[in-house]
């Protein structure tokens, strides 16, 4: 392309689909270059203010100019049509407007007082700026600057006085009103009438900040002592009043604290309070302290978890309760516990958030999955197709969340009385599925952050009624600390319908048979107090407050005005019999939840078949024990019925002409769907490399190392319990997000003989098995210098009197000082820390208190 063509610029080039309109003139069209200077305001836009503003910013300003490499350029028909469309002119424009300068002036539509134009080539076209418009623009800019300045002054004043600069306190009081909430719960009788006003008033007050100390962190005693020292200093300051942290006396080992939220102004005015706040932030980032609402800590404390237990948290995100479970698994201060926890969440994004939260604990006993809690897959643990069942299960189910009103301002506006109705079926489905995964003698905790009996006692009653022979509620009154005030569960409640505006007002219903048919899409039969009667064909319960056949009073209700916390509901179950126990053949299919035609959520045939197979095993043992003759044997009768039903179902699907099928059937034996693989099975040479380079002895349980199949970037270590779970059949049905703790990451430096480098998060687990080859003992002073500078050359270290790094092979290593150890990288002529900024801050704190 010629130089002339390079300088030529067409109006609208690149903005039109018309090639001719945006084309650059060819060399044949170009005789010489002419310049047309575009003056300010020529195209209806005055950029003089921008020029001044840009100069004030210290930026070079180049006024716009357009260069046209054309002396006379006859536009194409397509281009001329576009101009005519915009200008509404006749074809006369074709004859009069040949020069680009005149065309641009006509297209701009500007009218100015003085216009000097020359249509000959090489003459500049100048248009004077409208002075009046310029003055108006300056005036508007001045007003805008003044408005911005006033806002800045007000913001600084608000910071100084402690006033919230974003939300007016009076506005907050105004939005903390919801007439439907007040009416609904006042008439629901969840509390004595004389307490309701106090209950409603405290919901409008801010929720206290709560946090707990990580009890399995090896430095937790130092953290606790630091907190106690700060608290003692705060108590001596009159201005703080009661805003210093106080222990939650009901929490085990007094490792949880609560204190009133402080404004920014109060923190700025008091350096001690500000330092304490920064201390909490730092310790939280390092996993030594966890922020968690007080009532949210209760469910896990009632699970009574021991280090060898297998646990599943079916609705785990964002992870505060999962971390609490991990603490209890590690309570014996074993870095590799025998038990494990599966943390599951339906939402993929929340599952990955859980991964981020759990990294603060660095546990090898954590397995994170992303499955629908209503359909958690069964895992076969042996050749007899026995299902894996869990010692402990936590069901902190999705709910309306009205117990969180003190911290959730949006709910004041969004609450309506049917939120609980929509959550009820989902909650019931999740709880029943969890029942099936619970081991005999195991414990399950069901919890919500709601006051609504439709989400609480109604779900518990419906689930218990369907599994009356297997499950029962546990009396935990002796397990709960006397410092925690709670109320027993409700026995009687009514179900509400908000009506249909002016046509029909709201109504309360005590029994399902009184609900009109058109309201039964919202109101379900399982929401009523007669659930037990409905499922068990018993006479109606006596209509009195003492009747409690399901022991619903064993549930715990926590109200905000009792403990100055949020609202919560907890129910603790135990399994007394497995699903296939407690039946004899004659009453196997007598009235129970599966045969009740009113129950719409029935198990699928696959689940019934598993049930029948378990029954056949027990029946075989029973007949052999009682010497039942073969001709009188009743074995395979139930199973044959189920098989026939499955065959009929398959034939019906085939006859329909529609392709049916589940992914689990299509890929029933596809092990590649499970993304992790044992390291020693396919990468034994890699383990030998790591063992030799880092001096790892033979006692290390290398059989518990896994890597992701599609990438070998990281190698993770899992506990013994998780290793057994990995051997389960049909494990590919689990959508795995993360597992265990990462020990090694792929090394990108080809100069190092070690193929993988050490990771700080797995260092504590690996250190006891490493020899001194890649461990370097340093002084406390040198560690502090590393934390400040991060990188040192060998020459700098030699001048400081430290030559122990030289002679080491390039690659990852560890420096230790006392009980602190940090990963480093030894290069060809330098040494660098391999930890993040927040970890550096934490190590500095620990070094000071060492």
UniProtKB/TrEMBL annotation:
Pinpoint the SAM-dependent MTase RsmB/NOP-type domain residues.
Answer: 199-576
Main location per the UniProt record: nucleus
Keywords, alphabetical = Coiled coil, Methyltransferase, Nucleus, RNA-binding, S-adenosyl-L-methionine, Transferase, tRNA processing, tRNA-binding
Which residues are listed as membrane-spanning?
A: none
Q: Which GO terms describe its molecular function?
A: tRNA (cytidine-5-)-methyltransferase activity; tRNA binding
Q: Which Gene3D superfamilies match?
A: Vaccinia Virus protein VP39
Q: Tell me which stretches of the chain form a coiled coil.
A: 213-240
Q: Which SUPFAM superfamilies match?
A: S-adenosyl-L-methionine-dependent methyltransferases
Region Disordered: start and end of each range?
1-68, 129-155
One of the GO BP terms on file: tRNA methylation
Its annotated compartments are: Nucleus
Q: Where does S-adenosyl-L-methionine bind?
A: 315-321, 345, 372, 396
Bias regions of kind Basic residues — which residues? Answer: 139-152
- GO CC terms on record? nucleus
Mention any Pfam family matching this sequence.
Answer: Methyltr_RsmB-F
Q: Does the keyword Protein transport apply?
A: no
Active site, UniProt feature: 449 (nucleophile)
Family stated for the protein in its record: Belongs to the class I-like SAM-binding methyltransferase superfamily. RsmB/NOP family.
This chain belongs to the protein called Trna (Cytosine-c)-methyltransferase
Species:
Stylonychia lemnae (Ciliate)
């Amino acid at each position: 392309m010629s130089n002339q063509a390079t300088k030529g610029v067409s109006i609208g080039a690149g903005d039109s689909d018309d090639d001719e309109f945006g084309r650059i003139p060819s060399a044949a069209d170009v005789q010489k270059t002419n310049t047309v200077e575009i003056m300010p305001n020529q195209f209806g836009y005055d950029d003089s203010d921008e020029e001044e503003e840009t100069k004030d910013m210290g930026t070079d300003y180049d006024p716009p100019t357009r260069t046209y490499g054309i002396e006379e350029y006859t536009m194409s028909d397509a281009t001329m049509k576009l101009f005519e469309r915009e200008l509404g002119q006749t074809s006369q424009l074709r004859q009069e407007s040949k020069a680009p300068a005149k065309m641009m002036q006509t297209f701009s539509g500007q009218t100015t007082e003085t216009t000097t134009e020359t249509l000959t080539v090489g003459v500049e076209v100048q248009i004077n700026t409208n002075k009046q418009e310029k003055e108006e623009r300056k005036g508007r800019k001045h007003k805008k600057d003044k408005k911005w300045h006033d806002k800045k002054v007000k913001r600084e004043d608000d910071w100084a006085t402690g006033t919230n600069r974003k939300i007016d306190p009076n506005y907050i009081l105004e939005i903390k009103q919801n007439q439907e909430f007040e009416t609904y719960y006042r008439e629901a009788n969840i509390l004595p009438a004389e307490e309701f006003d106090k209950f409603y008033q405290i919901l409008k007050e801010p929720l206290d900040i709560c946090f707990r100390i990580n009890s399995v962190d090896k430095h937790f005693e130092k953290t606790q002592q630091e907190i106690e020292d700060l608290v003692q200093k705060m108590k001596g300051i009159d201005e703080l009043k009661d805003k210093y942290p106080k222990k939650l006396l009901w929490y085990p080992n007094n490792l949880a604290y609560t204190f009133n939220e402080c404004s920014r102004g109060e923190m700025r005015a008091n350096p001690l309070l500000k330092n304490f706040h920064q201390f909490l932030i730092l310790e939280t980032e390092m996993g030594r302290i966890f922020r968690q609402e007080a009532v949210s800590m209760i469910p896990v404390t009632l699970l009574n978890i021991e280090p060898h237990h297998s646990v599943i948290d079916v609705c785990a995100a964002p992870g505060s309760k999962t971390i609490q479970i991990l603490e209890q698994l590690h309570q014996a201060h074993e870095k590799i516990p025998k038990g494990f926890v599966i943390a599951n969440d339906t939402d993929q994004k929340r599952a990955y958030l859980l991964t981020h939260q759990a990294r603060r604990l660095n546990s090898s006993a954590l397995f994170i999955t992303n499955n629908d809690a209503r359909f958690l897959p069964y895992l076969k643990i042996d050749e007899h197709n026995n299902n894996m069942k869990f010692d402990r299960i936590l069901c902190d189910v999705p709910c309306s969340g009205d117990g969180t009103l003190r911290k959730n301002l949006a709910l004041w506006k969004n609450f309506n009385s049917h939120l609980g109705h929509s959550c009820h079926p989902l909650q019931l489905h999740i709880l029943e599925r969890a029942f099936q995964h619970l081991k005999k003698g195991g414990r399950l905790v069901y919890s919500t952050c709601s006051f609504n009996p439709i989400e609480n006692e109604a779900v518990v009653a419906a689930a218990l009624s369907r599994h009356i022979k297997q499950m029962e509620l546990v009396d935990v009154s002796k397990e709960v600390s006397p410092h925690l005030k709670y109320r027993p569960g409700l026995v009687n409640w009514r179900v509400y319908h908000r009506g249909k505006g002016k046509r029909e007002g709201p109504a309360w219903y005590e029994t399902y048979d009184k609900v009109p048919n058109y309201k039964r899409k919202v109101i379900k039969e399982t929401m009523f107090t007669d659930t037990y009667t409905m499922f068990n064909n018993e006479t109606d319960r006596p209509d009195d407050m003492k009747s409690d056949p399901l022991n619903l009073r064993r549930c715990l209700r926590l109200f905000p005005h009792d403990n100055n916390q949020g609202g919560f509901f907890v129910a603790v179950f135990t399994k007394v019999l497995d699903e296939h126990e407690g039946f004899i053949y004659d009453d196997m299919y007598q009235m129970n939840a599966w045969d009740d035609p009113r129950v719409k959520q029935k198990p699928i045939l696959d689940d019934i078949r598993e049930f029948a197979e378990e029954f056949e095993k027990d029946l075989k043992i029973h007949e052999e024990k009682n010497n039942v003759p073969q001709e009188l044997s009743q074995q395979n009768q139930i199973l044959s019925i189920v098989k026939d039903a499955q065959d009929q179902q398959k034939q019906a699907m085939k006859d329909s002409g529609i392709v049916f099928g589940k992914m689990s059937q299509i890929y029933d034996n596809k092990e590649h769907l499970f993304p992790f693989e044992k390291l020693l099975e396919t990468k034994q040479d890699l383990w030998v490399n790591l063992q030799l380079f880092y001096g790892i002895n033979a006692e290390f349980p290398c059989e518990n190392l896994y890597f992701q199949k599609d990438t070998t970037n990281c190698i993770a270590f899992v506990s013994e319990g998780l290793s057994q779970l990995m051997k389960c059949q049909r494990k590919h049905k689990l959508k795995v997000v993360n597992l265990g703790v990462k020990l090694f990451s792929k090394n990108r430096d080809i100069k190092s003989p070690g193929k993988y480098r050490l990771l700080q998060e797995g260092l504590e687990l690996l250190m006891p098995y490493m020899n001194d080859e890649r461990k370097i003992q340093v002084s406390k002073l040198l560690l502090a210098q590393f934390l400040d500078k991060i990188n040192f050359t060998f020459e700098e270290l030699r001048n400081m009197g430290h030559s122990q790094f030289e002679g080491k092979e390039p690659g990852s290593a560890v420096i230790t000082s006392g009980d602190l150890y940090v990963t480093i990288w030894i290069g060809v002529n330098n040494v660098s820390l391999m930890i993040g900024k927040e970890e550096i801050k934490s190590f500095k704190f620990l070094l000071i208190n060492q």
